[in-house]
Design goal:
Largest sheet: 5 strands, parallel
Oligomer: single chain
Number of strands: 5
Order of helices and strands: EHEHHHHEHEHHEHH
Distance between the termini: 7 Å
Radius of gyration: 17 Å
C-alpha cells in the first residue's frame, strides 16, 4: 500500500519535529505541526492558548489554563469538558488533513487517530538522554531546571496526554510501524530512512 501520510511521535529533544519537516520537504508533502493548533482552536471554539498547552495541562484541574477553558463556555461541543472538546476537534482536523493525503503530521495522537488507515506510516523518534539534553540546551537555552529534569517532565506530560487520549501507552513500539534512535542514526539519516520507505511504497505497492 502506498504511504501518503507520515505521523511522527517523538521524545522531547529527539529531533522528531526536525525529522518530520525534512521528510515533508524531501517528499513534497504538506507539513502539519503548530498549524494544527489554530485549526483545532477554530473547530473546538476554545482559545488557541488552551489548545496549545493542552498536552501539558489538560489533566491538571488546578491549572490557570483549565480555569480559562472552563470559563470559555461549551464551545461548539456544548456540555463536554474542554479536554473532550479538544480531543474531538483534534481528531476531526487530523482526519481531514489525512483525507487530503501527502502530508507529515507531528504529534497530537495522529498515529492513534489514523490507526485504521493503510496508507499511513507511523513513526516514533527517540534518543538517549545525553543527546537530547545537549540538543534542548543548544536550541532552547538553559533554564533554572537541569536539562534532564526538563526532558523527564516533558515526556511525562506527553505520556499522560497520550494515555488520556488513546488509552494506549506512549512510546511502545507495537503502536508504531517504525522506531528510530536519532542519537545513533542521526537526524538526516532518520529522515532518509522514512523518505525511502514512502518512496518505495509508491514503486512497489503491496497488493
Amino acid at each position: 500500500m502506498e504511504k501518503k501520510i507520515v505521523t511522527i511521535s517523538r521524545e522531547f529533544g529527539s529531533g522528531g519535529r526536525s525529522i518530520g519537516r525534512i521528510v515533508a520537504e524531501k517528499l513534497g508533502f504538506k507539513f502539519y505541526d503548530q498549524e494544527l493548533i489554530l485549526e483545532v482552536a477554530k473547530e473546538s471554539g476554545l482559545a488557541k492558548e488552551v489548545v496549545a498547552a493542552y498536552e501539558e495541562y489538560a489533566t491538571h484541574k488546578n491549572s490557570f489554563l483549565y480555569a480559562i477553558a472552563m470559563s470559555n463556555g461549551g464551545g461548539v461541543y456544548g456540555g463536554l469538558s474542554f479536554a473532550n472538546q479538544i480531543q474531538i476537534a483534534q481528531a476531526k482536523v487530523i482526519s481531514n488533513a489525512a483525507e487530503q493525503g501527502n502530508c507529515v503530521i507531528v504529534g497530537r495522537g495522529a498515529d492513534y487517530i489514523l490507526r485504521d488507515r493503510e496508507d499511513c506510516l507511523n513513526v516514533f523518534i527517540h534518543a538517549d538522554m545525553k543527546f537530547r539534553a545537549e540538543r534542548i540546551v543548544r536550541l532552547y537555552g538553559e533554564t533554572n531546571k537541569a536539562p534532564e529534569e526538563r526532558l523527564r517532565d516533558k515526556d511525562a506530560k506527553r505520556k499522560v496526554f497520550y494515555k488520556s487520549f488513546t488509552m494506549r501507552d506512549w512510546g511502545v513500539c507495537q503502536n508504531y510501524h517504525l522506531a528510530l534512535d536519532s542519537s545513533v542514526i542521526g537526524i538526516d539519516q532518520c529522515a532518509d530512512i522514512i523518505t525511502k520507505i514512502v518512496e518505495e511504497s509508491r514503486e512497489s505497492p503491496r497488493k
